[in-house]
């Protein structure tokens, strides 16, 4: 077999690519990670002030990987989730106590997660970190893939993992098709100070324009994701802080008392993007490069992390050819149903809960009341949002292999 520079090259050192590099630290594979931004200065664009809700399942994965002790000091537990629908009766509450778990999930600032991941991979001696650098050409060869970098350097590997985000360069260079669904919605993000303490409760409030999520953070702050009709974010972001908080308050209500302060605002147009054939000859797409979701249920990174652990599980013990088709099919067999069900559930939630149709509105409020009254249905929803109820790869179950 042709000798390659690396067994595995990961393109993209964001949350997903860095997690994969770290998950494989005990393998004997020769690995490089290529990232467009400088990892030493944590400049990657998704390491901003957004709060990332990590499910209970993701926390367990990080515990197994030996990273949770570094992430824990930056995280805030979610003990309850309150789900309601503006203008309609009916609400439901999920609680850690009812599910018999210490917390339903944890919120961590993306920036803090970036620092921890970047430090963790920098300490991984066997890993070659190539940054800042981008890939400009991909060539699939017999038993290998060759990448050309922006400095004209050529690198070969038996397997390329594309973890280069929703606008994946690898996907574009290969001319692969995507299925796209635009929602005509934009998420406005900011951190908000509230009059009343959040008591570790997360709020998801559905409105006719889209959902508003408030996630608990340290110091009586909450991380806001406010979904609005695309175009409206321009007007809303022009408002001064006082007027912004007033408008948000009229949409969300006073469950947390008055909103007192707002931090730096960001905005993200929302769409569902799926790479049509995420497994190619010696190339696999994971994380946002494979599936970019609406943040309505906070599942994007959680799903990406499950891609990571499932892929690491099939690669970790391979000594000869980590790019062989059988391994990639094993990964796909494991992860496909998880990806399909999360993508479908997220899409249905967006359509059902971002609609001002009064019939749908009554149906939603009835569903929330029913959910609140039916413990098995509530348990099912809680298990889903905690990322549980699926078969877990051996690595995620902490089984050393
Ligand atoms: C407002 C908002 C809120 C969210 N909240 C949650 C939440 O609560 N819970 C949750 O689970 N998820 C959440 N998500 C989703 C989560 O942020 C993403 O799923 C996650 O960031 C995806 O990580 P990734 O590593 O796949 O992609 P990215 O974060 O996009 O990283 C890709 C990396 O690849 C690099 N790159 C790109 N092209 C190249 C190239 N050609 N060469 C080299 N490097 C390259 C980029 O610089 C980047 O560092 C949210 C998303 C948004 C927008």
Examine the secondary-structure arrangement and name the CATH architecture of the domain at 6-78 and 105-180 and 271-354.
3-Layer(bba) Sandwich
Mean of all residue-level pLDDT scores: 89
CATH topology of the domain at 6-78 and 105-180 and 271-354: FAD/NAD(P)-binding domain
State the helix count.
12
Q: What share of residues is helical? A: 25-40%
Number of strands: 20
Sketch the major β-sheet. Answer: 9 strands, mixed
**Bound chemical compounds:** flavin-adenine dinucleotide
The structure class reads alpha+beta
Poorly predicted residue ranges: none
- What would CATH call the class of the domain at 6-78 and 105-180 and 271-354? Alpha Beta
Report what the structure shows.
The chain is of the alpha+beta class and 401 residues long. It has a domain at 6-78 and 105-180 and 271-354: FAD/NAD(P)-binding domain (3-Layer(bba) Sandwich). It is 34% helix and 31% strand. It is built from 12 helices and 20 strands. Strands 5, 6, 12, 13, 14, 15, 16, 17 and 20 form a 9-stranded mixed beta sheet that branches. Strands 1, 2, 8, 9, 10, 11, 18 and 19 form an 8-stranded mixed beta sheet that branches. A 3-stranded antiparallel beta sheet has the order 3-7-4. α1 packs parallel to α9 (300-315) and α9 (300-315) packs antiparallel against α10. The radius of gyration is 21 Å and the shape is globular. Flavin-adenine dinucleotide binds at residues 11-17, 34-37, 44, 46, 50, 52-53, 134-135, 163-165, 169, 187, 189, 225, 268, 287-288, 295, 298-302, 304.
């Amino acid at each position: 077999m042709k000798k390659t520079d690396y067994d595995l090259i990961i393109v993209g050192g964001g949350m997903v690519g860095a997690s994969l590099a770290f998950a494989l630290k005990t393998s004997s594979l020769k690995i490089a990670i290529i990232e467009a931004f400088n990892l030493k200065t944590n400049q990657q664009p998704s390491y901003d002030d957004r709060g990332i809700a990590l499910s209970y399942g993701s926390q367990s994965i990080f515990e197994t990987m030996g990273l949770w002790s570094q992430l824990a000091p930056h995280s805030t537990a979610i003990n309850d989730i309150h789900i309601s629908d503006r203008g309609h009766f009916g609400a439901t509450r999920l609680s850690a106590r009812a599910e018999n778990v210490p917390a339903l999930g944890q919120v961590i600032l993306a920036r803090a997660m970036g620092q921890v991941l970047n430090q963790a991979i920098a300490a991984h001696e066997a890993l070659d970190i190539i940054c800042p650098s981008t890939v400009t050409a991909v060539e699939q060869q017999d038993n290998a893939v060759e990448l050309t970098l922006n400095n004209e350097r050529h690198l070969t590997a038996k397997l390329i993992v594309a973890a280069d985000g929703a606008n994946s360069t690898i996907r574009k260079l290969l001319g692969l098709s995507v299925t796209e669904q635009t929602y005509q919605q934009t998420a406005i993000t900011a951190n908000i100070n509230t009059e009343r303490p959040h008591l570790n409760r997360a709020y998801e409030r559905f409105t006719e324009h889209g959902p508003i999520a408030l996630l608990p953070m340290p110091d009586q702050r909450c991380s806001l994701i406010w979904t609005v009709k695309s175009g409206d974010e321009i007007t809303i972001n022009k408002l001064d802080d006082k007027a912004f908080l007033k408008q948000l308050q009229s949409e969300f209500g006073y469950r947390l008392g008055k909103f007192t302060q707002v931090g730096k605002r960001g905005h993200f147009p929302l769409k569902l993007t799926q790479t049509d054939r995420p497994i190619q000859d010696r190339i696999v797409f994971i994380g946002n490069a494979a599936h970019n979701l609406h943040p309505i249920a906070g599942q994007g990174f959680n799903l990406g992390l499950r891609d990571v652990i499932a892929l690491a599980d099939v690669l970790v013990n391979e000594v000869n050819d980590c790019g062989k088709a059988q391994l990639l099919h094993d990964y796909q067999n494991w992860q496909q149903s998880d990806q399909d069900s999360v993508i479908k559930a997220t899409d249905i939630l967006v359509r059902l809960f971002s609609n001002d149709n009064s019939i749908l509105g009554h149906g939603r409020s009835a569903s929330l009341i029913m959910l609140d009254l039916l413990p098995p249905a509530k348990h099912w929803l809680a298990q889903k949002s905690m990322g549980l109820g699926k078969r877990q790869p051996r690595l995620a179950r902490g089984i050393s292999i």
